[in-house]
Hints:
By secondary structure, the protein is mainly β. It contains one helix and eleven strands; from the N terminus they run E-E-E-E-E-E-E-E-E-E-E-H. A hairpin with a 2-residue loop joins strand 6 (76-77) and strand 7. The protein is globular, with a radius of gyration of 15 Å.
Amino acid sequence: MSDINKVVVHSMGGKLLKGTTQDFFPNRPLFHVLPTDAKASVEVKTKNLKAVFFVKDYVGSAARRDIRGFINGPGETAQGKKLAVRFKDGELLCGYSLSYSPDREGFFMFPSDSGSNNLRIYVITTACAEVKAGPAAELMAQKALEKTEDAA
């Protein structure tokens, strides 16, 4: 029997789907989500997605502010090498990945902020505007932080 995973599915169009899945595999073109407010599962095609967030819970904490960037974290951890992802919609994710390759349809990353509600994230490569690894990831995150601070 497969594990039940809590997920928040982000589509390229900005729609969210919260629910559970038991049949997500990165090498398959689709999977099913049982929405939190429904009795029937929904078929989800990965090609239409931005990312699949595997979460601790669906609510999170409204008061919590995710730590942006890597906070001078190590260049490599058990979860992989530093990676910064800027999506086509402008969102920036920082974390670590063992499986990033621009030739793959997607890859898993682990958030750099261990207090995040996200356990891991499956990123769809075609939804990315830019992906940087190692020191280039740190630089990309720093530049994004500076822009955020300047705007505040």
